[in-house]
Structures are given as structure tokens and as C-alpha cells.
Amino acid sequence: MIEEGKTVRMGLIGLGSMGRHHARVIREVEGMELVAVADPYGDKHGVAGGLPVLGDVEGLIAEGIDAAMVAVPTYLHEEVALALAEAGVHTMVEKPIAATVESGRRVEQAFTQAGLLGCVGYVERCNPALLEMRRRIADGELGEVYQITTSRQGPFPARIADVGVVKDLATHDIDLTAWIARSPYATVAAQVTHRSGREHEDMVLATGRLENGIIVSHTVNWLSPRKVRETVATGEKGAFVADTLHGDLTFVANGDVRSEWERAATFRGVSEGDSIRYAIARREPLRVEQENFRDALRGREADVVSMAEGVHTLEVVEAVLASAAAGSTQTL
Predict the structure, then answer these.
(1) At what angle do helices 285-297 and 19-28 cross, to 10 degrees?
(2) Which residues of 266-276 are buried (b: 16+ CB within 10 A; e: fewer)?
(3) What counts of helices (H) and strands (E) characterise the chain?
(4) Pick from 111-120, 158-167, 262-271: least confident
(5) What is d(CA 259, CA 95) in angstroms, rounded to the nearest whole number?
(6) Staple 103 to which of 38, 98, 143, 145, CB 3.0 to 4.6 Å?
(7) Pairing mode of beta strands 32-38, 248-254
């Protein structure tokens, strides 16, 4: 790990649509210094500043970095991450951990065997609305949780070329759902469709059950003119609704309490109770993610996404695609 108080010498590989934001945030985080950047295709967004744009991961390693942020296309994650592990460089890899489960497992094993910090960049875990939702659920404010649903829809992002909507977007929802519920997936079933003329799917509907019994569903596409980012957790005391576009969290209480249900001869459902929108601090999630990485590098307790969690999410992602292809429920 990095000695407390020592500035973390950071390297960044991949200067595209995500890399440019990581470059800015790393420069803003106290205790981090961006000392090297690399991208074989150059610096089209002009984020390198006075740093030379190196051509590959070997050039990045040669700069004597302590840790690296990997923001290259998904199909390159394994190659770049394994080179960093071999060089003894702590690493955060942008989601998903790799292109396939087997590839992800090799990456995880390399960092574990080297005794290095390896984590995955699932930035939604740093969204203020989801952080608050998870905390309140853990405190029992929802009672028993019955269901978690997500909706992630919007126009097609020009940045995507190598994966479909499941590995690009639904991977966020799978990760955050298991994280909020504190339980891995047990089963999943899905349907996908191809409407944009690309080889990869652009819409998915997926349902599943977690090991702790919570049922889940995900509606994800990049063919909607209306941008939606919503996560809803429903339980015995009501529902939490997180608007992750704006960082808002709302609680809608059940108007009926469970003791009344049990006395009723016939259960007729619940009624809408009071609604509360919480005032929460809205810090930039990407900055929180890098601060967590810094703290973990210094040996502090920090909520980073382990590579093992990244592999499980990828297992669910592949099960979603397998279910859609086979027309059957997949067991994890």
C-alpha cells in the first residue's frame, strides 16, 4: 500500500470519453498526482496538459507510477490490467472488469496473487442518492425489502463501439442492485432486441432473484429519446425512489402498517402514505470514486468495488445474454 501522507503517483491509460473525466478528477483529488498518461490514439480531448502522451501501458509503467486508472475499451482491459499487475501497480479498471468472465477471473487472480489492490470503477455506487438509499435500508427504514427495480434509458452514446447495452449500461444496474441488497444474484431471465443496425443488442429487459430472496428487474436501452436513471427499492414500510440523474432520493411510506394487514380478513394491498424528499449532499460521484481509491491505497477502510465483485457482475451479465439467446432462466 501507499504510505499515509505520501502523494499517490497516478497513471491514466485511455484518454477517451471517460478517461478525460478521470484526468480532471485525479488532478482535483488531494493526495493524488497525475504523472503519466497514455493512449495509442492520442489526446483528442486535450487533457494531457504538459504531460507527454505515451503510446502504451509499458510507457506508463516506465514513469514509476504507484497506481493506475484503466479507461481503455473493454476488449483491452485484460491485456492492460495484467501488464500493470505484473509490474506491481495498484489498479482501478473501468467497468466491466473485462470482456468475458474468464478474462475477468484472470485479472482478479493476477492482482490477488501479486498482493495488489485491484478494483473496478462502478461509479454509480458513489451516487449520493444510492449511497443514502443503501444506508437507510441498512438502518431498517424500509423494513424487509421485497423488490429492487432499475430503469436506465436514453439516446445512443456515440462513444460505444465494442459492446452492447448489457455490458455497457446494464452492468451498472446489476452491480448497484447486488450492492444495495447486500446479496449476489441467484437467477436471471432476459429478453434483448437489436433495432439500431449494430451487431450488439441495444435494448434489454431482465428479471431475477437474489440469493436473499429479493426479486429484481432492469429496463435498459439506449434507443429512448427520454433519459431516465431511476432505482426503486420497495419493502414492507414503503419505497425508496432514487433519481440518479439529479442525485435525489424520495421515500413514499405505506399508508397501512403490517399489523393491520394481518388482522384483515382479506389483504387488499397498501395505500399511499406520506412522501419525503431528503436533502442530501450532491458531490460528484467520479470524484468520490477516486477519493475511495486513494483511501484504499493508503490502507484505510474505503468502499471500492473488489475485482471479485466485478467478476460476479460479469457472470450475471453473461447469464443475461445467455438467457436471451436460449429463452430460458439462467441459474448463477
Answers:
(1) 60
(2) eeeebeeeeee
(3) 10, 16
(4) 262-271
(5) 44
(6) 98
(7) unpaired
**19: amino acid identity, one letter:** G
Tally the residues of the chain.
332
C-alpha distance from residue 310 to each of 106, 263, 330 (Å) = 12, 45, 19
Task: Give this prediction's pTM.
Answer: 0.91
Closest Cα partner for 220 from 180, 185, 171, 178? 171
Predicted confidence (pLDDT) at residue 271 exceeds the cutoff of 80: no
Cα dist from 111 to 115, 262, 303, whole Å = 6, 52, 18
3-state class (DSSP) for residue 23: helix
Structurally, at CATH architecture level, domain 8-116 sits in 3-Layer(aba) Sandwich (3.40)
Q: Which three cell numbers stand for residue 176?
A: 448497484
Task: Spell out the CATH class of 128-280+314-331.
Answer: alpha beta
The mean pLDDT value for 108-130 works out to 97
State phi, psi for 282 to the nearest 5 degrees: -110, 80
Tell how far CA 286 is from the center of its chain: 11
Q: How many CB atoms lie within 10 A of CB 307?
A: 27
C-alpha cell at 274: 406520506
Q: Which helix (H) or strand (E) holds 99?
A: none
Q: Does an H or E element contain 151, and which?
A: strand 145-153
Q: Residue 285 corresponds to which amino acid?
A: P
CA 274 – CA 244 distance, rounded (Å): 22
With bands split at pLDDT 50, 70 and 90, how would you rate the model's confidence at 2?
confident
Q: Name residue 215's beta-bridge partners.
A: 147, 209
Helix (H) or strand (E) holding 33: strand 32-38
Cell of 98: 473485462
Q: Are 214 and 146 in contact (CB under 8 A)?
A: yes
Residue in the block written with cell 460479469: 314
Tens of pLDDT, residues 127-179:
999 999 999 999 999 999 999 999 999 998 776 667 899 999 999 999 999 99
